[in-house]
Design brief:
- The complex is a heterodimer of chains A (334) and B (385).
- With 334 residues, chain A is mainly α.
- Chain A has 12 helices and 4 strands, in the order E-E-H-H-H-H-H-E-E-H-H-H-H-H-H-H.
- Chain A has a single domain, classed as ABC transporter involved in vitamin B12 uptake, BtuC (Orthogonal Bundle), CATH 1.10.3470.
- In chain A, the strands form 2 sheets. In chain A, strands 1-2 form a two-stranded antiparallel sheet. Chain A has a two-stranded antiparallel sheet with strand order 3-4.
- The radius of gyration of chain A is 20 Å and the shape is globular.
- Chain B has 385 residues and is an all-alpha fold.
- In chain B, 64% of the residues lie in helices and 0% in strands.
- Chain B is globular.
- Chain B starts with a helix and ends in a 22-residue tail after the last helix.
- The chains are: A mainly alpha (334), B mainly alpha (385).
- The interface between A and B is large, with 50 and 47 residues.
Chain lengths: 334, 385
């Protein structure tokens, strides 16, 4: 990296402006960012779906994700993996275990999301509460779930379980790509396509879009609004469960009670970046955020990664609050 | 409850002040009396518990301007508290790189101006946004402030600042009035600051600004159409709320004498929100009560801090479902001249809704049924606006 030295501006010891490092690690950052971004995108889909249907920022969605992370972790434990140990299993067994853990996480997160909707939001809808009440309830729910997990599992992160140690498979422009990154990016894209097709093509998806567009008319046309809302929460929860599996594969030490906060706010940023209520926007926003965040980390130093994400959020909302692809689930293609 | 509020509202304002004097004196005497059931000892030193409750109350009053008066959900309020505390630290601690040691009384106005400016800086781009976007941007702002405290070297991260300036003065026996170990003097100071801030807020509420805030809260579009410059008044709400947050930050920093990056997380912000919502958004007495409960109950009953957070999280959900207006709901008042006109016409009572204000009708700003029966048809609300 010696050739990059003249480009480094050491303004202060605690912040860099290291253009050389950014250029050096451009492709590695891009790939890594895409892997992170896929996780953001999967969580962002949950925010976007609920926002599209209820115009509610479901603050507790990040806790649904954390529940998924713990479900994944506990599945690994009950499958006999031990924290810290490197498993020596045939690849087929590992894939089977991963799929199993993913299914458990999807189920648990999906049920948790539906339960949250039942307990916290439905009573408010019945009472015709103002929007501020929904938001405050969401914050309270997020807080409460977080604290329940903390009381249950303690405030230290769980041990690390690595089922699939990252190994470089091939390189693009000199940047190594690991098996883990390939799995995460491809599987996320597959999940996204499934979700997109579900909303845009299936009968239930048509119901979701109808309620998003005009709840009153949709009800008159025979759409069961309560059922649509339940399904929306369930789909969001299931996607959060998938994201939880990928997250734990990337960051094995990530099972901690408050791990959802940062991811949640970043996923929301991703949803807004792409245009909240817009499924494809969520994907695009997630990928962009993941990549930009990695560039920022190289440019300013590791401590500034989260700051970059928050500043990006504020900037988007200032200059293009409707996001890149525009808002609204309702107006997405029929 | 309704009877008390009716009786209270039928008094003239000087009479209300007169009644408040013994209450304030009682509050000031509370740590000295140290009454057996109310005291938090032996768990927590009683003056310190009261001081913490008073700081919490001051924060709640400031946050109430933003949430209760103007109806803007600010989840990053702890950021302003932090800015206030850090301003005090930077301007007076020997650890600070600025190398100045200003006295506390000089710091307070500076810190308030700094937080006010930061409120305007945060508000200018974000207050054009929809309400729920605002919530998340303020959340991001609070986190940015915390991360800056973590990362920026001159702010000293976890090491923090020692020996922050405190007000001077001695008791007759020579011990300092304001000290770290004995919070008595600080508690008195905090109560007096609260009284002053309350007087200021009361006047603000009855002014054009306060009426504009209520209009924004109840229906922003309608307010805009009626010629209220909503954007400007929202920024005012943000700036004034921020200044009070900064004030409480300096007060806190002075008492503890030490500031580091450990107190300014999102959890704390949520507790502030819980205090305001629990007590009753928009009701000053209510939010003080809420802040007192949120701060005092854990000290009195010595909760495990973990359960404290869980309980207040659940309380937020339950409250929103069953009593969205909080313990003491917001009262719809006649303001300014309307109050005098009403008193002249009917002789007593200025509360538009002495009793019948139900949760749902209040929450929707629907006041159609809340006119007292005996004056039905002569809606006194018209005179207030």
């Amino acid at each position: 990296m010696a050739h990059a030295a003249p480009l480094v501006v050491h303004a202060e010891p605690w912040i860099n402006f290291d253009v050389g490092l950014l250029a050096d690690r451009f492709w590695a950052n891009t790939i890594n960012g895409l892997a992170y971004g896929s996780v953001y995108a999967l969580i962002a889909l949950g925010y976007t779906l609920v926002y599209g249907v209820l115009q509610l920022i479901n603050f507790a969605h990040s806790e649904i994700f954390v529940i998924g992370v713990f479900a994944t972790y506990l599945t690994f434990i009950s499958l006999g993996f031990e924290p810290g140990a490197i498993p020596n299993l045939p690849i087929a067994a590992i894939i089977l275990d991963l799929i199993l853990a993913g299914l458990v996480a999807m189920t648990v997160s999906g049920l948790a999301a539906v339960g949250l909707e039942r307990v916290a939001y439905r009573p408010l809808r019945r009472r015709n509460a103002p929007r501020l009440a929904f938001l405050i309830t969401a914050i309270g729910a997020s807080f409460a779930i977080q604290q329940v997990i903390r009381i249950w599992r303690g405030s230290n992160p769980e041990g690390t379980i690595r089922l699939l140690p990252p190994q470089p498979v091939f390189t693009i422009f000199g940047a190594p790509i690991t098996n883990l990154q390939i799995v995460i990016i491809l599987a996320s894209l597959a999940m996204f396509v499934v979700a997109d097709q579900f909303v845009n093509r299936s009968r239930l998806g048509r119901g979701i879009r109808a309620v998003a567009q005009d709840p009153a008319t949709a009800t008159l046309m025979g759409v069961n609004r309560e059922r649509v809302i339940m399904i929306t929460f369930a789909v969001g929860g299931i996607l959060a469960g998938v994201a939880a599996l990928f997250y734990l594969m990337t960051i094995p030490q990530g099972a901690v009670y408050n791990g959802g906060f940062l991811l949640g706010i970043k996923a929301f940023t991703a949803a807004v970046l792409g245009g909240i209520g817009n499924l494809r926007g969520a994907l695009l926003g997630g990928l962009i955020l993941g990549v930009v965040e990695n560039y920022g980390q190289s440019l300013f130093g590791g401590d500034w990664r989260d700051v970059v994400a928050f500043v990006l959020l504020v900037l988007i909302l200032m200059f293009r609050p409707t996001g890149i692809l525009g808002e609204s689930l309702a107006r997405s293609r029929a | 409850m309704a009877g008390v509020s009716h009786w209270w509202n039928s008094k003239s304002r000087p009479a209300q002040w007169g009644y408040m004097v013994p209450v304030v004196i009682f509050l000031l005497a509370l740590p000295v009396l140290n009454p057996p059931i109310i005291t938090t000892e032996p768990y927590t030193d009683f003056p310190i518990a009261l001081f913490n409750a008073a700081v919490f109350a001051l924060i709640a009053i400031g946050l109430n301007v933003v949430i209760g008066q103007a109806g803007l959900l600010d989840l990053g309020y702890v950021g302003f508290f932090a800015i206030g505390a850090y301003t005090a630290a930077l301007l007076s601690s020997p650890d600070s790189e600025l190398g100045v040691r200003y006295p506390w009384l000089v710091i307070v106005p500076i810190a308030m101006v700094v937080t006010m400016i930061s409120g305007v800086i945060l508000g200018t781009p974000t207050l054009r946004l929809r309400g729920d976007y605002l919530a998340i941007v303020t959340l991001g702002f609070g986190e940015i402030v915390r991360l800056l405290a973590d990362n920026v070297d001159p702010l000293r991260g976890n090491r923090g600042f020692q020996n922050i300036a405190r007000p001077g003065g001695d008791f007759p026996d020579g011990t300092p009035i304001f000290s770290q170990t004995d919070a008595l003097g600080f508690y008195w100071l905090a109560v007096m600051i609260i009284v002053i801030v309350l007087l200021f807020m009361g006047n603000l509420e009855r002014s054009r600004v306060g009426r504009a805030w209520i209009a924004v809260r109840e229906d922003e579009d309608a307010a805009e159409l009626s010629g209220v410059p909503t954007y400007r008044f929202k920024i005012w709400a943000f700036a004034i709320g921020a200044a009070v947050g900064g004030l409480s930050g300096t007060l806190f920093a002075a008492q503890v004498g030490y500031v580091n990056n450990q107190r300014f997380d999102i959890t704390t912000s949520t507790l502030y929100l819980a205090a305001v919502v629990l007590g009753g958004q928009g009701n000053k007495v209510g939010v003080i009560l809420g802040a007192f409960l949120v701060s005092y109950i854990p000290d009195r009953f010595q909760f495990e801090p973990t359960y404290r957070f869980l309980i207040f999280g659940v309380a937020l959900i339950v409250l929103m479902i069953f009593r969205p207006q909080g313990l003491l709901g917001m009262r719809q008042h006649l303001l300014a001249n309307g109050r005098q006109a009403y008193q002249k016409l009917f002789g007593a009572g200025t509360a538009v809704a002495p009793s019948g204000l139900t949760a749902s009708s209040k929450a929707r700003g629907d006041l159609s049924e809340t006119v007292p029966d005996d004056h039905a048809g002569t809606s006194p609300r018209g005179g207030g606006e």
